[in-house]
Amino acid sequence: MFKKTILCIGAGYVGGPTMAMIANKCPDYKVLVVDINDERIAEWNSGKPPIYEPGLEELVNTNLNKNLFFSGNVAEGIAEADIIFVSVNTPTKTYGKGAGKSADLKFWELTAREIKKYSKANKIVVEKSTLPVRTAKAMERILHAGNPDVHFEVLSNPEFLAEGTAIRDLNTPDRVLIGGNETDSGQKAIQELIDIYSHWVDADRIITSNVWSSELSKLVANAFLAQRISSINSISALCEATEANVKDVAKAVGMDSRIGSKFLNASVGFGGSCFKKDILNLVYLCEHYGLPEVAEYWEQVVLMNDYQRNRFVEKIIQSMFNTLAGKQITLLGFAFKANTGDTRESPAIYVAKSLLDEQANIVISDPQALDYAKKDLADCVGNIEYCEDPYTATTGSHAILIMTEWNEYKDLDYKKIYESMEKPAFLFDGRNILDHANLHKIGFNVYPLGTPPLLNI
Ligand SMILES: NC(=O)c1ccc[n+]([C@@H]2O[C@H](COP(=O)([O-])OP(=O)(O)OC[C@H]3O[C@@H](n4cnc5c(N)ncnc54)[C@H](O)[C@@H]3O)[C@@H](O)[C@H]2O)c1
Predict the structure, then answer these.
(1) Which long-range contacts (CB under 8 A, 24 or more apart) does 287-293 make?
(2) Which of 267, 272, 261 is nearest to 233 (CA)?
(3) Which listed site, 109, 159, 219, 374, has its alpha carbon 20 to 30 Å from 130?
């Protein structure tokens, strides 16, 4: 009854939403998502997805058990599938050669071996995970080793969605990129993938290239995005020193149509599972190919991000009379960005740990990320409280840090909060989202980013 079966290996932030969208747009395809994490699969099947993403729950429930299925049986899924997307995690390697920079491909290779083991007929294998250039070639070699009867065509189809806006991004992507071999079977496989995306994406937004250009494009896109954040953050330091205002500078610069206004908000720094890992992966590749100047250029984007986080913590310590010991500090937000519960590489983790080192008592508040925050700080020594309600979380605090740009933090009753706090009350806006002049009027000592502080005492 279905035209074809699509399998996705890896039911995470990419696999789950992407497959829910394909199932929704392509009722003629059966879409099966498998994962080795049985708990995750059970959550997807419960109709309450394991990740928070606006619009995701509705999308999953519209299609669940119609043409969208989640299962823990990887072998069965592989055997049944015509097209296999692989969206397993590819974290930075923590051991051996390339530790701290190159991508750890152990999950990826394991998947390749499983695909080879359980495939009895020709299949298209699609890289959805972000991978180093030439990984598809390595995968082809693994898949074809000693398996001459079954042909695998490996495509690269990197995912450009952003957490927090994943459903919108998947529904109206800026582009869909498909990389494939320049052989007849490669071009045929590309067409099969185009047929799927054509169900809802305009033809002029579906672009094709060879496999390595596609793999590299994903790393470069993330490097460019992160570079903009580091660029404006570097200027925020200069603005604070010179009494310029980074918001005014960003506006003036961003109105140049050659530059554009997006990704020019100064902040405590970028986080998320991808930016740092993908840039370091790019750096490693450049080093590997004997291009040290190029490697250093991109590594600076990550170093600038570290600098910005350190600067934020140092500013807190310095302005609170050089001691945080015994003081209560509330972090409003823990997710790495708004509209997600994901805390991977969140600057809040680094800031929280630094405050604990200074013997501050910390209170963490977030509308979606408290479960992950507890796991992230499980090994930390010190006083940590978790509290969803921002009013309770800030009562009795000496300082508030805005760590995530949740919209709801813009609309809090800061007068009420100020009255419940210890005085002098400090507010450090790590996302530059609040009305600083108003906070100053209420009585706070306000520390925006990229402009001098507004002090009451
Ligand atoms: N998160 C994002 O915003 C984003 C955006 C674009 C691209 N990516 C890339 O997509 C990939 C996946 O990222 P994610 O955030 O979805 O990761 P994730 O950790 O949320 O999900 C990966 C899933 O793969 C599963 N898995 C690992 N090995 C497996 C195996 N052998 N068989 C079956 N399942 C297995 C894990 O259990 C996990 O549930 C990464 O390469 C990442 O760089 C992520």
Answers:
(1) 287/101
(2) 267
(3) 374
Distance 37 CA to ligand 1 centre (A): 11
Active site residue 274: yes
Long-range contacts of 445-449 (CB under 8 A, 24+ apart): 445/319, 447/315, 447/316, 447/319, 449/233, 449/236, 449/240, 449/246, 449/266, 449/267, 449/268, 449/312
Name which CATH class applies to 4-209.
Answer: alpha beta
Name the residue among 272, 270, 250, 274 with its Cα closest to residue 262: 250
Nearest residue by C-alpha to atom 7 in ligand 1: 159
How far is ligand 1, taken at its centre, from the CA of residue 302, in Å?
22
- What is the full per-residue pLDDT of the chain (457 aa) written as tens digits? 899 999 999 999 999 999 999 999 999 999 999 999 999 999 999 999 999 999 999 999 999 999 999 999 999 999 999 999 999 999 998 999 989 988 888 999 999 999 999 999 999 999 999 988 888 888 888 999 887 789 999 999 999 999 999 999 999 999 999 999 999 999 999 999 999 999 999 999 999 999 999 999 999 999 999 999 999 999 999 999 999 999 999 999 999 999 999 999 999 999 999 999 999 999 999 999 999 999 999 999 999 999 999 999 999 999 999 999 999 999 999 999 999 999 999 999 999 999 999 999 999 999 999 999 999 999 999 999 999 999 999 999 999 999 999 999 999 999 999 999 999 999 999 999 999 999 999 999 999 999 999 999 8
Q: Are 266 and 312 spatial neighbours (Cβ–Cβ below 8 Å)?
A: no
- In the chain, residues under CATH classification 3.40.50.720 are 4-209, 210-457
337 vs 267: CA distance, rounded Å: 11
Q: Which atom of ligand 1 is nearest to the CA of 158?
A: 7
Between CA 95 and CA 431 the distance in angstroms is 34
* Residue type at position 366: D
Nearest CA owner, ligand 1 atom 21:
12
CATH topology assigned to domain 210-457: Rossmann fold (3.40.50)
Ligand 1, CB within 6 Å, residue ranges:
9-15, 34-37, 40, 74, 87-90, 107, 110-111, 129-130, 159, 161, 163, 273-274
Distance linking the first and last C-alpha atoms of the chain: 73
For residue 245, report the distance from its CA to the centre of ligand 1, in Å: 39
From the CA of 14, how far away is ligand 1's center (Å)?
6
Q: Which of 239, 274, 286, 387 is catalytic?
A: 274
